[in-house]
Amino acid sequence: MLRRLLVVLLPLALLAGTPAAPTLADPVAGPVARAGEIPLPALSLPPAGIQGRPMWDSWHQLEPFGYTEQELFVSGTARAADGSTAPYTTRVVITRPQRQRDFNGAVMLEWVNVTAQFENAVDSLEGREELLRSGWAFVHVSAQAAGLCCTPLTPKVWDPVRYAAVDHPGDAYADDMFLQVARALRTRQVGGVRPMGDLRVRRVVAAGQSQSAGRLAGIVRDFPDGAGVIDGFLVHGGLAGLDYEPRLRVPVLQLNSDWAESTGTADDDPLYRLWEVAGSAHAGLFIGYQQVFGSGRRVAGLPQVDEQGYRDAIEAAGDYGQMALNPLYAGCIVAGASFPMRYAVNTALRELDEWIRTGERPRPAPRFEYAADGVTPARDADGNVLGGMRLPPVEVPVATYRSTDCELGGITVPFDPLTLQQRYPTYADYERQLVRATDRAVRRGWLLPADARDQVRRACAVRDRYPGTTRECADYRPPRFGG
After folding, report:
1. CA-CA 20 to 30 A from 243: which of 70, 220, 315, 394?
2. Cα angle at 355 between 353 and 360, to 5 degrees?
3. pTM here?
């Protein structure tokens, strides 16, 4: 079993974030040339197959959170930008609350990333705490061909019996396929299948990171009204561009990292908001840890971890650089970049949903500051980027976030003991400044109260870097969000 696990984990570690060679997964420019309503595809249940479960299902048990999960095949005829059509069968994995009373009415439809030639549900991993605690449904959409075949970490190879019917005609058809999935999930019953069970869907949010963000940006430009099936977009980085024409008719929140993703003038459309998150890498520890020690274990045949296993993994993955020694800080692509971008993703999900429901826009954030070349982010004496949305770990740092090392990854370099104690002579000094920065981020509408409490709780670990400290950690109560 250990050997089998290593066979799976090693490619995950090597491939995560590695730029892909040109394949069918490369974006195809141009609109989906179709007027009128998005076609409604057919839905069906997959066979049990060899494995008896979906590839990339939840790496932890869902029952303790009041959730359930189901894989469905989606079949139809998709249209490409040149007007050609092709039949397709792809798949979705739907994770949803079991009961209507626990459902917030919103579905996050994720165009999963396939840059590494396997499917990586970045926003479902990064926003996992918020999705579960706020009652979202979230859907893994196999939109691109490279995610389905033909490496050992793709469904058609992992279980050729279960996925024999899956047939992707190529990424020229991916946009239309994604929109058809959105329509199906808004429909209470498709044939004999109820894709959301008894839940009543009120809002569908499309989300995607990196290459997937670029694909979503293309849909926004082609369908500024979301084609009548998508109510808002979370465009998460990926050189997606900052300008959208024609004028938008549904909200778009673009969330970018330090990875030189935001140069240029941002769109002034009232339905567009740009957040640039200082200190954040394109990919990082919170994603990589769940990929390798969660999803990788599942693919290798190990059982889902229980609720405590979930909490232990989230605790380890959520390290923001506060520990003096952590070998994962140098992990670059797979781990390394430990700045908590997930806090910004969580806030973006909450605020985008609120924007769709009420029309109230998310709070603005400053742009990054750049060097004279207009491309390289300007950095302070600690090596952390200047400007942007500034969350507590970059406002009151205990580490340098080398967020652009390794291009798509990054590393974390904790302050040495002398630097730490020159900056904050005692742990009490650090904690006081950190709490004030956390309060500011909550009041500005950038940090959710639940994540603010998590941030201050985690900061207690810095106490161990001050030998002899006996001070109790803060009993923190966040201020009013956006107040």
Report:
1. 394
2. 150
3. 0.93
